[in-house]
Specification:
This protein has 250 residues and is of the alpha+beta class. Helices cover 57% and strands 12% of the residues. The chain contains 7 helices and 6 strands. It has a 4-stranded antiparallel sheet, covered by helices on one side. The longest helix is centred in the middle third of the chain and has 47 residues. The chain is rod-shaped and about 115 Å long. The N and C termini lie far apart (136 Å).
Length: 250
Amino acid sequence: MKRNNSPLCTFLCITLVSLIFISCDNKEIKEYAKSFAFAVNAEDLDKIKAMIDPTCQYNWKNVEIRDIDPDSIIIKQQSASTYFIESVDSTKFVISKESNRYVIKSTYNVINVDNHQKSFAQLKGLINENMNDYTIYQTINSELFFRLLEEQRTLAKENAIFISNQKKIPSLLEDYEKSISTIDTLVKENDYSISPNFFITTLGTKVLMYANISRKQVAKYEKYMTDEQRSRYVNANKRFQYYMDNRDSI
């Protein structure tokens, strides 16, 4: 019997064999993917550690493990030895075929870090949605992240102090301005035929002393003043200083 050794026949044979191997591979990959999903859902850390790339050194106490729906797993081959696994619950992971075993090379939205820290890292541009879980984990545990976080906390404290002190300024500044206005009025109304020097009188001494105390109180918060408040404070100081410099002659 004559064999058919045509190129077409050879191609079809190779294609058929390839499809058989791909089908077997896909079956093994799906079983491995489901096995990983079951381990994740059970939070079986020993099995997760055995399946995941050993270079992914998590502190498992500081992460949250998200469930994977094993029944909705979809396999997408990226290369001859790499498979991208997707699930309808938005979890993803990559399986790599290495010599005689499979390894979970990376995960996406499976092993999550603190949401507040993640949001802060995104705000600072340190991470993005395309990064895998371990890259995000490493970033959030980096010296740069902790430095930026400490700077943010310091800034938040300073802002809280600023706001708290800002609330005290209006009444203190108004009191200081009123004390100067009181001096203005009393100086004008003083009967100089009786008391040629207003500030040697008991009343003159008291109002000047009160204005000085009021000035010292508001001066404590000068660095927290707005431009408008600082302008008022400077004007009040000029008027107060005028009376201090001329108290022996008024």
